[in-house]
Each structure stands twice: as structure tokens, then as C-alpha cells.
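Example 9 (inverse folding). The structure is encoded as follows.
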């Protein structure tokens, strides 16, 4: 009787391995945040050793920064795709900013949880600059959408797109603060969102 041959373990190409590590890191950090996220858990998800993770990204902080960039690109692509599909910019923003969507977006396991977690790390010397770049990227995406809406006549043309974008980013960033101090938060969130969207309309002037 012939003995079975040992199973050959196939090595992933470098780019594919790096992408799989990044995907696992995004999942782990979106569930637990940076402080509680463990490189050992990320390595386990991919099926590699911790040294392999560090060989690819250098440090836990660098891996977290890469995960932040990854989710920012994903959210930006989603917003652009919705606009490219022909949806008016105010409609795209309304769907994204909808309080119910924001609630799901910031739950553990979702991309928004990672953004909220990163905000608390703004003064970390290894992560502060990365966080600023992530917010700049997201603000740039919103500014591009607003300009697109202005060109189409769906957004008032007397607004500075960059300022309006940072206003919307600030609206989102304040959710954690409002959650801790505002009574009847759901009602307030809904009204603030309506006010923001109404202020973008051409008939708001």
C-alpha cells in the first residue's frame, strides 16, 4: 500500500500575501481597534507567522496606517461609484450621511468603526500624521463630489467646496461627542443631517 504524499504548502506571491495581510488587518482593527488589535490574530487569519506580517509592513503602527488608507480608498470609491452611476450628488450624500446608515457604518466590524477609533489616536506620534492624511483624503473626496454637484446644478454654486467638505467631515467626527452628551440623540442627528443637506441645495441661498 502506497503511503500518501505529504501535502505541499504553496507560497503566495508577495503581492498577494501582502494584500491578504492587509485584508485581515482591516478586519481585525475594524472589530477591536488599534490598541486591542493583535498582530498574532492578524497572522492567524492569514495563516502566516507574526514575523511574516512584520516583514511585509514593518510594525503594527504601519499596518494600521495601511488599513486606514485601505478603508478610506474603499469609502471614496463607493461614493464616486454612486455618483458615476448617475445619482445626483445630494442623493449620494443623503444616503451616506443618513443617521441609520451612519449607525451601521460605525458598528464594530464596519469601516466607520476604524475611523472613529483612529480619531482617538490623533496625538499618537506614530499615527497622528496618518490620521490627518486620511481625513484630508476623505475631505478631498467630498469636495470633488460637491464640485461635481455644483457643475450639474444640484449643489449651490456660492459654496467653497473645500470648506463645505470639512464641514461635513466635522459633522461626522462630532458623532462620538454628541453620543455622550446629547439627549434624544437620534432626533438631533436626523435634524442636523437634514440641515446640512438643505444648506447644500441651490434653493438654500
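The amino acid assigned to each position is listed next.
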Amino acid at each position: 500500500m502506497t503511503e500518501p504524499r505529504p501535502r505541499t504548502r504553496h507560497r503566495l506571491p508577495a503581492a498577494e500575501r501582502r494584500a491578504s495581510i492587509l485584508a485581515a488587518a482591516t478586519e481585525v482593527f475594524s472589530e477591536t481597534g488599534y490598541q486591542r488589535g493583535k498582530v498574532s490574530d492578524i497572522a492567524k487569519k492569514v495563516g502566516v507567522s507574526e514575523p511574516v506580517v512584520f516583514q511585509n509592513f514593518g510594525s503594527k503602527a504601519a499596518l494600521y496606517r495601511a488599513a486606514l488608507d485601505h478603508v478610506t480608498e474603499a469609502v471614496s470609491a463607493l461614493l464616486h461609484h454612486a455618483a458615476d452611476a448617475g445619482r445626483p450628488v445630494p442623493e449620494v450624500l443623503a444616503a451616506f450621511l443618513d443617521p441609520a446608515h451612519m449607525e451601521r457604518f460605525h458598528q464594530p466590524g464596519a469601516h466607520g468603526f476604524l475611523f472613529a477609533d483612529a480619531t482617538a489616536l490623533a496625538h499618537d506620534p506614530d499615527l497622528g500624521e496618518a490620521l490627518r492624511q486620511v481625513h484630508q483624503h476623505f475631505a478631498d473626496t467630498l469636495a470633488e463630489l460637491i464640485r461635481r454637484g455644483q457643475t450639474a446644478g444640484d449643489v449651490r454654486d456660492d459654496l467653497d467646496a473645500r470648506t463645505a467638505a470639512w464641514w461635513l467631515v466635522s459633522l461626522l467626527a462630532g458623532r462620538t461627542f454628541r453620543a455622550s452628551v446629547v439627549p434624544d440623540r437620534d432626533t438631533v442627528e436626523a435634524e442636523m443631517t437634514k440641515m446640512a443637506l438643505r444648506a447644500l441645495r441651490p434653493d438654500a441661498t
